[in-house]
Fold these 4 entries.
Entry 1:
Amino acid sequence: MNQIDITSLLLLLMAALGIFSSNMPITVAMIVLLLLRVLHMQFMFPWLEKYGLTIGIIVLTIGVMTPVASGKLSLQTLWSSFFNWKSILAMGVGMLVAWLGGRGAALMGNQPTIVAGLLIGTVLGVAFFRGVPVGPLIAAGILSLLIGKM
């Protein structure tokens, strides 16, 4: 079997994991990637590698900030969050996760050999533990703390 077939089979297997675990984002992502391969649109892969994460973060940020933009989350509610211990703790955790994500992005750029393990672990976590696929950066950040590199 050649490399193309093995890669396509891996994408199919991960799509099947998405279907098996009722996780639509994983299923759709794997099918889109498989379609790009089958339709010989591999020229898209470097662009997706370069900008996919940024586009995903932009879409995620839009989703998170929509309650503010729509008025569901008022300025008064936002302001009161500075006086609630749970909200203050949430801000601290958010800052920690953002810092870990930054470390993770640097580690993934400096040590691309770990990317495959992080991605497979994230997909498995999404498939089997009902996670969401935002884990590779945070996982890489935690890994950078464990292995002492960035």
Entry 2:
Amino acid sequence: METFPTQKEREDHLTRMEKEVFNQYKPVLKKFTRSQGKMLVKLINRETNQSSYSILKAFLGTFRAGFWQTFGKFFGVNLKAGYNPDKDSDDAIIERVCVLVEQGML
């Protein structure tokens, strides 16, 4: 993004990339259940140490990130959800499974 000389070029590039991502992943994501959506948000948080909301906010801005947060909450998925396997038993299970997959045991 920083290699583009003007703000307009950055915005155009971001718009193109957003369309490509939507076209590639929308059909798969539309088939996710609520629990799969929650799991995806947790895994994104685990891998990036950032909430999905903060990532969207960085790329799309506050208003559009807020829209997606509201949309997600409507379907029971909180994009601002944290990931803490030490305090949340569901997160601890996710962590155990991820570690086993990373070690090739699952």
Entry 3:
Amino acid sequence: MTKPPHDEPTAAGPEELREQVEQSREELGRTVEALAAKADVKARAQEKATVVKEQVTARAGDLKEQAAVKAGELKDKAAQAARHLEDKLPVPVKDRTARTIDQSRAVATQLWQDKAPEPVQQKTAQGARMARDNRSLLLAAAGVALMAWLAGRRRKG
């Protein structure tokens, strides 16, 4: 007869022996399942990829939200700075600037109409209309681009 391992008591009868065998089978089955799960590299890699994807998606959402907040802050600061600058300019300078801008627009418009081909003028007008119609989207995109550029500079520096 064989000796029981690690001082385990021997079974008193056949029924107890069957129970011990069944318990050992269950433990062995759980151990085999755990080893098989560890050996399944593809499944583990897919699980890890799913976790990383969820983390990246969450982080991207956070960054998008932060960029929107920063874009709003930058827009407000730019508007404040423009108002402050406008308040500081003397009236004659403002008038002269307005006249110069009007003259420049008139000359540029005339040159554009005289020199640019008709299809180019049409496409440009269409692009300008789209930009006007989507002004807030363009400002938000510019804000996000600015934040990405600043973040890149911060990492390098």
Entry 4:
Amino acid sequence: MSAMRKALLGAALVAAVVIEAGGTARAVGREVLPEADLAHHGHVSLWEGRLDVRVVSENHGPSHVSQATVRLAFSEPLAAGQELPTSCLWGGDRVVVCRTGELRAAGAPGELALDLRTVGSPDEMTVTVDTVWRDGSTDRNPKNDRHSVLVLATGDPYVF
């Protein structure tokens, strides 16, 4: 094998596999992306047009995430003029998008609480929770940060 081929092969191997202190990374082309496993769990309750949403966001690692964004999408429109926590923004009349804050690998979870009102008083609605941004990291297990839950207007907590 020529010296040039050996040098190119070596460069390709370096670009393909990188191990960081405190975590792992995956290469895409020549760019190395950290890997994190985000998970969202919690519960949703609906009664008389009131909606209570609790989300706990965790990072099972191996790399830390300085910031992530979780999207909450609702099948029924939410009443206008409601205030959201400072970490959240409206993405439309059926969508709320929130920052999770720093999620350290295997560290303390981030918590989010929303008390909302719907337009009218629906008998049921579907709430979808998913990660829309994870600070540039990859996630090989996205199933635990994407949930869709049917919530009946009983006031009972429906867990995801």
